[in-house]
Amino acid sequence: xxxxxxxxxLGATGAVGAELLELLATRSFPVAELxxxxxxxxxxxxxxxxxxxxTVEAVTxxxxxxxxxxxxxxxxAISKAWAQTAVESGAVTIDNSSAFRMDPKxxxxxxxxxxxxxxxxxxxxxxPNCSTILMAMAAYPLHREQPIRRAIVATYQSxxxxxxxxxxxxxxxxxxxxxGKAPPTEAFPFPLAFNVFPHNSDLSDNGYCQEELxxxxxxxxxxxxxxxxxxxxxxxxxxxxxxSEAVNLEFDAPFPASRARALLADAPGVTLLEDWxxxxxxxxxxxxxxxxxxxxxxxxxxxxxxxxxLWLSGDQIRKGAALNAVQIAELLLRERGLRPTAAATENLVxxx
Length: 352
What we know:
Dihydrodipicolinate Reductase, domain 2, EC 1.2.1.11, NAD(P)-bd_dom_sf, diaminopimelate biosynthesis, NADP, seven-stranded mixed sheet, lysine biosynthesis, Rossmann fold
């Protein structure tokens, strides 16, 4: 790794951190140096990158010295504590937490939708919430054709959205229940195996949980429609990896399902999956480990002449988190006109 970009992964031992490592390797991101950062409890662990063992370090104020790019996926509290330090050290931070998403000075980016927003960054670029990304990938190609008047979304969110510990807990719960034992509940407040419950993020005074409000506010910012009418109901389901969503879109005029199908078939990052004869549409097992968001069951809303229904499944860890972050990093390199060999002497960050 003698040429390229000096990268640090903050939260390297988590589920998204592991995916970031894989994607940097498989997408041939020009990594000159790679630093793995986590909490003191994880310091000393060994992880592999392209067959090379790397030691996880505890994050400190010196961790970002001589780093060009920070991929942060350790939670909002950690990002708030360290992102500015990284920027002051000369690195750009792509943050996967909710810490900066609604900051008007921080671009919130899905590269297939609003790549132009990258140009406004001042050292931090925010990665949207996983449910927002997956929904937006399916809705935006239609919105670009005919502006969405209202969106109603119901999510079916997998354990992966709560991290590696939650995925392990779901497996343990399933075994415990099948063995006639009480399932452990540490990562989740209730058993998730063989069960569903409303998303357990904090409730606001209006009765919506934070996950639902993230979808509303983030979609408005990404689409550039601050008054977009939207509502969401987010639910945890006993799926290990990949979220699904039922999406109802209302337009000002009828939107033929055939036209929507054609647009989504050509949309980047989207795979149309429909077999009406077999009643076969996207499922989490289709999306798990895949880059694309799988969309199908596109049909007219029987209750509204200008309504359209669709169903999607997408990998929460991949496009919903790690892949989108790496795509933002690739976009930064492209838009800033940096050559990999020059990245060691020029910082990615530029304060406008």
